[in-house]
Amino acid sequence: MISGIRGTRDILPSEIGRWQHVERVAADVCARYGYCEVRTPVIEREDLFAKGTGESTDIVQKEMYAFTDKGGDRITLRPEATPSMVRAFVEHSLEQDLLFAKLYSLGPMFRYERPQKGRYRQFHQLDVEVFGLADPAIDGEVIDLAVTFVEELDIASAELVINSVGCGDCRPGYSAVLLEALGSRLPELCGDCQRRASTNPLRIFDCKVPADQPLIDGLPKSENFLCEACRDHFEEVKRHLEIYGHQYRVSHRLVRGLDYYTRTTFEIIGSSLGAQNALLGGGRYDHLVKQLGGPDRPGIGFAAGLERLVLELPDEKGSSGPADVFVVAFGQSTWSEARVLARDLRRAGFRTLIDYGERSSKSQMKRANRSNVQRMLILGEDELASNKVTIKEMETGHQETLPRDEVIGYLALHCQGVTL
Ligand code: AMP
């Protein structure tokens, strides 16, 4: 037996309803906020992420599934969606086609990480991106979309955290302040932090090593070192969150693991996932489009981890319930008509089961019971002769015989959630 690969998961019939529920709500919320769906390939050029996600990130340094294909090109499974979305936006000049370049995508991502609950090597994201808008109102709207999405999934006690990481004007100064504050104590921090100090000192705030925390907690906060334009932008973002009535916490430690962020960063944190508790995260990236060879357009977006949302979903969500009908052929001569009846019910919109192998009526009924179906439609020789069908409601035991052409009307009245 060849088993699945570590860090990947099969999404089985018992869970698929919860997944479909999350995907449906995602697509629905995005459509209501004016976003268009795009689907980009799972494989891309390795360069796209080296340039986009950033050479100094863990993703690019350690986690990409990169390989040389048979034609000699360096290819990778995508580790995140944003660079692909930027590529598609630029390659197809989407800003010319769309009133607003507001895009979303759903699909698998791949990172060679250490698997644990809520962290996998193949995982799935909802990715939401906006190109071409610098107005802090869009930061507010994107964050509002993220909050609405989580609320519509009925995920309780999620917390919104925001920060500003500044821009090309103020961040170098702040990075220098951080290095100065660390001074001779830098060697006390872990190896990753030492590396970060020379590549991108802000990312020291990402460190999770317990021994490093007291020193990191005492470092100067970014909010006090923003340039005037970044400070104004951040104040406006907060004002928008307030007009929408959203509670939030400002955390200067929210720098996120990717290099391209400018100004706004945000996360929504779940309550029951332990260490892997970020349900979604994102921010503004005003230089990424240009950096990847496109026009000089700002961008903002976020990615939500579907595995984590499915894990946090209330238990009762996403269950589609048992089938509406089990058609039982009572007697050998009734099979053909029973199959046509099942086909007609399926075409009319009812979730219909029927057995195979011309089994006895007793074993069909056993199977109907096991399926938890809501009702049986019994077609016996008498019913066949009089063009009727017997319906048995499983819960109440109520049974009646109806003309064949009244069956669909009966089911429309008795099946919940069916629209004809
Ligand atoms: P990122 O793309 O790293 O900004 O992450 C955005 C969101 O994707 C996180 O908040 C998680 O919900 C999810 N995510 C990131 N990495 C993983 C992973 N390895 N396994 C499962 N979910 C992940």
Q: How does this model look, in words?
A:
The protein starts with 12 loop residues before the first helix and ends in a 6-residue tail after the last helix. The chain has helices at residues 13-32, 46-51, 58-63, 82-91, 94-97, 136-152, 171-182, 191-199, 213-217, 228-243, 288-291, 306-312, 335-347, 361-370, 381-386, 407-414, and strands spanning 36-37, 43-45, 66-68, 74-77, 101-110, 122-131, 159-164, 249-250, 262-269, 278-284, 299-305, 325-330, 352-354, 375-380, 388-393, 399-403. It has 16 helices and 16 strands. Helix content is 36%, strand content 21%. The radius of gyration is 28 Å and the shape is elongated. The strands form three sheets. The protein has an eight-stranded mixed beta sheet with strand order 1-5-6-11-10-9-7-8, with helices on both faces. A five-stranded mixed beta sheet has the order 13-12-14-15-16, with helices on both faces. It has a three-stranded antiparallel beta sheet with strand order 2-4-3. Helix 13 (335-347) links the parallel strand 12 and strand 13 (352-354). The longest helix has 20 residues, at 13-32. With 420 residues, it is of the alpha+beta class. Helix 1 crosses helix 12. The chain has two domains: 13-170 and 226-312, Bira Bifunctional Protein, Domain 2 (BirA Bifunctional Protein, domain 2); 325-414, Anticodon-binding domain (Rossmann fold), CATH 3.40.50.
